[in-house]
Every structure is written in structure tokens, then in C-alpha cells.
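G.,

No rush on this.
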Amino acid sequence: MIQQAFAANGIHFAQPTVQVGSDEKQAAAAAATANAIARKQAAEVVEG
């Protein structure tokens, strides 16, 4: 309701956006991070 009132007066709210790309470097970094987290969690289970 409030958003419609603002829009009627030419005031618009920011909308979040998502960008999907195929950057192999980012994918490799994400995989390495996930692997490091999994290894850390596995080590904690063995120690604990």
C-alpha cells in the first residue's frame, strides 16, 4: 500500500539483483573453500 503510494509519485524502491556468471576462477575458489570447510569439520569430529 505504501509502496503503491510512492510509485504513484514517481518514487521507486531498490530491487535486489542476482548476477549469474560462468567465471571458472570463482567456481574453483568456491570449491576450494567448501573443501577446506569440510576438512575442518571432519577434523573436529575426529578430535571431538
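When you get to it, here's the other one too:
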Amino acid sequence: MDPEQFKIFMKEMRSWITELKGEKKAVEVSGSLVHISPFENFDPNKEKFSCYIERFGNYCNMKNLKDDSKKAQLLLGSIGSTHYNALTAYLGPDKPITQLDYASLTTSFDQMLTPKRSVIVSQHYFLSIIQKESQSIAEFVAALQRDIADCDFKVECTTSTCKAAKTVISVNEIFLRAQFIRGLRDNWIREQLLQSTEHTFDKILSKAVALEAARIESAELSKRTPNPGSSDICRITQPRRNSRHDSNNNNKPHNNRQRSSPRFENNRSRSVESRNRSRNRIDYRALGIQDLCTRCARNNHKVADCRVDYDKAHCTSCNRKGHVSRVCITTLSKNLKSNRSGSTNSVTHVEDEHAYGISRLDTEIIDLFEVFPDTDKYIVTVLINGKPQRMEVDSGARFSLLSEEDFNKLNLNLPIQPSETIFRSYSGNMIRPRGKVVVKVAYKDKETHSDLFIVPTGHAALLGRQWIRDLGIELKEIDHAPSFMSKTPTINVVVTPDDIVAEFPSVFSEKIGCVPNFEVKLQLRQGAKPSFTRERHLPYALRTRVEEELDSLEAAGIISPVTTSDWCSPLVVIPKADGGVRLCVDYKAGVNERLISASFPIRKIEDVLHSLRGSRYFFKIDLFKAYLHLKVCPNSALIQTIGTHRGMYTMNRLSFGIKTAPAEFNRIISQVLHGLPKCEAYFDDIICHGATSEECAKNLRACLKRLSEYDLHVNRNKCSFFEKKIEYLGHIIEHNQIRKSPDKIRAVDEMRRPTDADGV
């Protein structure tokens, strides 16, 4: 190869290498987009969409992804199938989701997943927040800070300079400070803050956190440091009144009783006089309601601060107003008196129709230095997943409990499942467990798989009735003594319909609300002309009741009088069995045929029933005058104008009889209840369900909270509370069994069999 040919060869080689480098760089750039892994799915139960989209933006920046079209594609691939399909249905077929840019896509998701509440609803919700049983002060403040952002607490400045500039001043800190002190669960901390001279929220918060920490540390120190005066010999014990033991005890000398000093006798006489003076007072501690509100039976406030109306609280035990059955003093006093009239060492169970029984032990004042040998506890050792654990046999407890400290010592490596069950001891204290685990427990030659509830450290390990039966434990085998006394109070589960009604009083009030951020618009066919039909003749006997109903609707803002209108449909009055009237409107003559049908898909009844599989507890909710909760636009209000004997009224809410009303209501209620677990809606019939009563109660609270946020109200008389067998959508549902309701097929069953060909 001569020098000239070598130069040409090297030039070609350099150009070929340059092309290879360019192709490799392009491949690397394109590959950096292809190999970006999807972001995590959005979970509304963990975070708000605004927080999710902020973290998604940080993820894109970390991956150096700047192209908005690529970011939109990555968001659609990361959001999850449920929200992807929901947004597709929300936007409709005319607006494909894949053609939206990144900004429009995030805006659409935000409008669908986080519908903005009105300022009034946000302020009302903020002023209703109180510290929960399991919340620390820091968690309580975080909840207040999160919800006050939407409240818009502002006032206009009144100085001349500010008036000219129309300056608005935020007063969020004032409301935050007031609601923080008002909502504290610990009355002692609240009293300390009210006595303080601090005024800024930060200083008040710092003091509250310090007081809470001091109280927790003091409680821990008291647990670790034994009290020298708390030994078994100084404990008040239960005397035996059994005839056999009375005879035995009478034969034994009681030297300690004979050494009573005059000072001890004086103390005893003073205690008797004090007991006689307080005989006519109500002993709330003996009734077990000393920490409860005597109106709604909740433990986070007193009756003076109760928000439940006096007339709304109804007792099913004494049939009186002003309180619920759990705090009925008349019934509890009778039960306590009947218990004391019997054997003092017997365990009795007081039950009403909604609460589980509470084990009660009567006590009396005895010599502090007297010791009874027959009051020992029944202790057994069981194998929990093959590891031994000492537990106290307590036939008064329904479930088995284990403290968190003892559970950690077993080192079982089992995930603790969340539980909404709340226990209440005989002393009235509420105990919220950390959760529950499913364990294999064995005793002698028997074993079973069952739930074990994990409670905070400090509570004794209890073996409840469920394990006693499953393991066949006999108390005589443990100790020949016929009875025992436990220092640990027995516990029962509190789940009653009265609690649910008291927790959501506004939802169960039969009134017509207005769903915020939604407005129904009726679409007319092209070229449709207004239709005017005069009012129909109304019998004079019904006019007074009709006018009262019209005045009520006008006062609520549901209808408005109008002097002239191109649209008018006649009012139809239907007498009710209770003497009232039902107002209907006949829209079929002129309005319905001019409307465009709404194209929202309605779920099949079979699909709704299929979603109930696996559940055993059901709560059916009937919305009170459901359609009237939806506001319509001004033009639609004119289209719905009704004609009465005393003039015309525009209908400001969605009216019964409009042919598109069912589809419009179903579209909105689907968005309102979107994301709630085990909550199904078929038009205005809502059902919450769960495999256990605890799961059903948890799902029900989430549903009622959502209804409260959207100002929806229910008809309590038509609701079904925690039923195992329920009729829904014309079917009887009972633990994976679905069959037709007999009332719906009675006509077919009673039809006469055909006897000839014509009859067939």
C-alpha cells in the first residue's frame, strides 16, 4: 500500500468511527427514556394526590426527564389501573386520556381524586376535630395543620391604609390555637395551658408536648418502681359468702381482726358516716360510666360539651329522650341493685340489645389486713406457635389479650393486622389494641387457630372465653377453689348502632343538604321549544297541607317563586298514609321528550351482588330525598318550573320525574363514594359490608365520614344496622347465599297452573 492509499484508508476509517460513536450516543439517549422504571401506584388511603404528584415530579427530576409528553406517559403507566379507568370514564369518549398533555392530565386527576370542599364545609370539619384516643399531641397538631389549609380564615383590615389597599389578614393561628386547646383529650394538660400566660401557638404547643412527655415518663417510672404499699397483703379482696367457706372461715381464728386499734375504729366510723351522706347521690363509678358522656355515651367529652341534641338521643331501654341505652341510669341502677341482692361473689352479666355483657364483681369494705387464701388467679401455660406463655384464665373476657411487651418476647415474627375493635374495661377505661394476629394455640392435647389481640404494655395476659371453649380448659383442673378474683378488669367489645348515630349526628338528621362542587345541567335536544302546561285542579281539602309543604321547600331554598316562565309542568299531589302529602311533578308531557338522555353506565344488579361475596355483616343506608341534594344550573331550574294553585316555582334542585335524574345522580354518587372499601351504591341505596363486625364498622365509618363531607343525609328509619341477613335490590343476602326475595316472586308462585294450551 503506497502512502497515498494509506491516507485515503485512514480518512475513511476516521469517518466510520465517528458514525459509530454518533449511533451509540443516540442509542444511549433513547435507552435512558425506555429503561425508566414506573413510579409507584397512587393509593388515596395513604396520601393526597397533591403529595403524590409532587413526589412524582421529584422522581422525574431525579431521572432527568424533562419532556412533558414522556412525563404524561410515565404518569399514566404509574397511576394504576383503577384510577386510569376512572379518569377515562370521568372524561368521557370525546376526550381521550392519551391525548392530554402533562398539565391537563394532572389537573384532571386532581379534579377527580380531590374534589375541593367548600370553605364552610372545611371550616365546620376543622372545628369538629378532637384528639383521638390513639393520637399523640404531635399527630393531633399535624391533623389540624393539614385541615386548616382549606379553611381560609381571613378578615379585612379595618385601618384606613389597609381599607384603601383592601388588605386581608389571615387569622389561622388564632383558630388553630383555640381548636388545639379545645380538642385536647387530656383535661389536665388543657387546664395547664389555660392557666399559662403564653399566647403564641408555637410556645403553647411546646409546653403541651413537654407536659405530655412528662406524664408518659411518670407513668413509665411508676410501672418500673414497685410501690411498697401495694403488696398482696394490703389489697382489698372479695370476701367469701359461700356457706361451705363461711363455716370454714368461722372455725379459723382471725387474730388480725382482734387487734383493731381505736384509731382504726374511728376511721371506720367516719367512712360509714360518709357513705350514709352520699347514699342519695348517683355513683357513676359503680355504674361504670364515670368517664362517659351521660347523653351520647362517648368518652372524649362531658355532657356539657355534647353536640348531640337532647331530642335526638333516644334510649331503647327506658324509652326516654336525652340519653342512649349505654348510659341509662335507671337501667344500670336496677341491674346493680339486683346484682348486690344476690351472692356477692358471683359474676353476673348485664346485657342490652346492642352491647356485650360486662362482668361485674360487687365489693364491700373489709379489714385491710385480712387475707383470704382462696382469691388466687387461675393461671395456665399455653403454647402459642410452639412457644410457652403464662396467661390468666378469665371467663369474663370474650377475646384473648397479650401485652405488646410479652408479644415481642415471644419473637413470633408475625405481622400485626390493624383492628378497629375497641375494648372497655369494667372501670370504664377504653383500651385500643395495637392490632391482632392469628396464632396456633395449644393446651395439653388440644389446639386451635384463633385471633390474639395485642394491647399496650402494662395489661395482663388474658385467656378469654373463645380459647377456653376451643381448648377445653376446666377450672377445677387448675385449682380446686370454686371461684376467684382477678385484679385485671374484664373487657368487652363496644359496637352499637347508638354509637354510630352519636358519632355522625348530622348525617342521620333527616334534612336536605346540598352536595358541594357539583351542578347538574339538563341538555335540550336541538331545536327544542319550551313546553307550558297549566296547573291541575287541587282539592280544597289538600290545599293547606300542600301550602305547608311548599313553604318548607321555599324556606330551604329548594324552590323559588317566579312570576313568568316559558316552561311549566303541573304539580301532582299524592296523599300519604300518615296524613301528609307527597309532591310530584308530571314532566313526561312536555319536558322529558325534549331532553337528551344522559349516557352514564349503570351497574348491573348482578355485578353489585357479586361484590358482596365473602361478607357476613351488612349495613344498608337509605339516602333521605336523594335527588334533592343535587343543585342544578339556573337554566335547568327554569326547565323544571312547576305550576301550582298559587303560582309557579323554579326547581333549584334535581327533581324526581326528570328522565335523566337517575343517571345524573348515579354519576355523582359514584364519584362521592369512589375509593371506599366494600361500599356499594345502586342509585340511592348504599350498602357497607365486611367479613367481620369490626371490618363492617370500619368501612361504615369511612362511608359516613364521606357522606358528611358532601352534606348528604340518610333516613335512619330505613337503615339496617349490622345485619347478617339483609334484603337488598330484591334479593335476600346471607353469608355467600343470594336468593330472590319471596315478596318479589310471590305473584309468580301463586299463579294458577295452566290446564290447557290457551292457558299456556
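The mean pLDDT is 78. Residues 3-34 form the longest helix (32 residues).

Enjoy the weekend,
O.
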